[in-house]
Design a protein that fits this description.
Helix content: 25-40%
Structural class: alpha/beta
Shape: globular
Strand order of the largest sheet: 5-4-1-8-9-10-11-12-13
Largest sheet: 9 strands, mixed
Order of helices and strands: EEEHEHEEEHEHEHEHHEEEHHH
Number of strands: 13
Number of helices: 10
Strand content: 15-25%
Oligomer: single chain
């Protein structure tokens, strides 16, 4: 199961570099963008998409507008993503929306409208869903969401003894220190990029020792981890072309969890995450990549075919 959001993304390219934008007092900046695309997104849905393509029964638990956008609903059916946890809220007309701008150096600026995720129904709906399906949930990913939802989900999963990895992601900017402390106390494993992990460390200085495992994604520099008292690192995989980095972090998480559920070592799991992230970068949007050559690309990239790799 993957908790988080379902969103409509609007993705545009900035033809220059954000670093070259003129300095202003405040953030009163206006500029043009190119190649505006409407895409299917939301971190929980992005991760579920990749997991489904890797052969798993991925169940996203998300709150969305009612009715769900017809084109998104059709896409979900075609992708083979389980719909049981997609909850349409009658009082919400719009699902969450993301507005994502990428410059030529693959830097991104994202604005996110959380919409239905703010509903006070989340906790009771999630608890009822887990109670009903707990026997069929072997692992969970807490993808980025508002702090209240992530903490209540972590508390519920802990009560049902369902293992999970916490990924507060870009939402961590809105977490209070107490939010960070509460989520990390409940989490055995956590993942984030450098900025996100450093933000959590301001609230939890002993983060490396507070969790059983901490994974830090480093973009083009790969990934590092501290798990069960041991540290490690791995380089990034090479995409055939770098078309769009949107959603590649979600793709990494799907590849990582796929390998762990398949019996892979932590290093192989990091490599698997890197492969799915690299493939994702070769397509525009977060849910358009084809993973039929995942196994072939893994073998070619790492010059290895481990026994857990069956695709």
């Amino acid at each position: 199961m993957v908790t988080g959001t379902l969103a409509i993304d609007y993705i545009a390219s900035y033809p220059g570099s954000f670093a070259r934008l003129p300095d202003h007092l405040g953030i009163n900046v206006s500029t043009r963008v190119e190649n505006l695309d409407r895409q299917f997104g939301g971190c929980a849905m992005n991760i579920s998409y990749s997991l489904s393509k890797l052969g798993h029964v991925a169940i996203p638990f998300v709150l969305c507008g009612c009715p769900l956008d017809q084109s998104y609903a059709q896409h979900i059916r075609q992708a083979g993503v389980d719909r049981r946890g997609i909850i349409e809220l009658k009082e919400c007309r719009e699902s969450s929306h993301g507005f994502i701008f990428t410059d030529r150096e693959q830097n991104q600026f994202t604005a996110f409208y959380s919409g239905p995720a703010e509903s006070r129904e989340y906790e009771s709906r999630f608890r009822d869903f887990v109670k009903l399906h707990s026997d069929s949930i072997d692992y969970a990913i807490l993808a980025p969401d508002i702090a209240r939802n992530m903490i209540s989900a972590a508390e519920c999963l802990s009560r049902f003894s369902i293992p999970f990895i916490s990924d507060p992601g870009q939402q961590v900017s809105d977490f209070t220190d107490e939010d960070c402390v509460r989520l990390m106390r409940l989490s055995q494993f956590a993942i984030g990029n450098e900025f996100e992990v450093n933000r959590i460390r301001t609230a939890v200085p002993s983060l490396d020792d507070s969790t059983k495992g901490l994974i830090v994604t480093l973009g083009p520099r790969g990934v590092s981890w501290h798990i069960d008292g041991e540290t490690g690192s791995e380089r990034a995989a090479h995409p055939t072309r770098e078309l769009d980095p949107t959603g590649c972090g979600d793709a990494f998480r799907a590849g990582l969890v796929h390998a762990r559920l398949s019996g892979a070592s932590w290093r192989d799991s990091m490599r698997s995450g890197g492969i799915v992230a690299a493939i994702s970068m070769e397509y525009r949007g977060s849910q358009n990549h084809n993973l039929s050559l995942y196994g072939e690309k893994y073998v070619r990239e790492w010059d290895d075919r481990p026994t857990w790799l069956t695709m």
